[in-house]
Amino acid sequence: MSLIERITKVGDAKVCYDNMPIESVYTVGIAGEKFLRAIKDQGAIMGAVCPTCNLTYLPPTMYCERCFAELEEWVEVGTKGTVYCYTILGVSLEEEPLEEPQILALIRMEGVHGGLVQRLGEVKPEDVEIGMAVEAVFKPQKQREGSILDIEYFKPV
Fold first, then answer.
1. Strand ranges of the sheet holding 113-114, from the earlier edge strand across to the other edge
2. From its phi and psi, is residue 68 left (phi > 0), alpha (psi between -120 and 50) or beta?
3. Is the pTM of this model over 0.90?
């Protein structure tokens, strides 16, 4: 069958059942790199602003999802936000019980479209509330690697 011919009968399709090893490298792209460099180098959380829609995207993107304008203006969105929603984890990714529960939350900064999913710290699970004010706690500068995990957690303020 040549490249321009189409399969018209199900029986003509070839199927192979097996395991296929796949390796890949994920890159964060231009916007992601700039965002993570600001966290690493400055301890700053940056958003990208749409000049047409006047939305500030967090995490930042290269183009506005509403009007497709290129986003070239970047602004600091601050390190304080509020808990929009959260979940309490009692089991690790390896399905082992955790010694202490961990709390993951979607943190929304004022005036931004989107937010960050990050751990909460310095708070007990029973004390977490929707709308709770929190602030980012960064790793010490020398320990930062250019990862979202350079923000160790958000703590109540």
1. 73-76, 46-49, 56-58, 113-114
2. left
3. no
- List the pLDDT tens digit at each of the 157 positions of the chain: 455 667 777 777 777 778 878 787 778 899 999 999 999 999 999 999 999 999 999 999 999 999 999 999 999 999 999 999 999 999 998 899 999 999 999 999 999 999 999 999 999 999 999 999 999 999 999 999 999 999 999 999 9
Strand residue runs (E) in 13-150: 46-49, 56-58, 73-76, 80-91, 97-108, 113-114, 116-120, 133-138
104, 117 contact by CB (below 8 A): yes
Which DSSP symbol is given to 36?
H
Indicate the CATH number of 24-156 among 3.40.50.150, 2.40.400.10, 2.40.50.140, 3.40.50.2300. Answer: 2.40.50.140
Q: b/e per residue, 114-136, with b = 16+ CB within 10 A?
A: bbbebbbeebeeeebeeebebeb
3-state SS, residue 109: coil
CA distance 83 to 66: 25
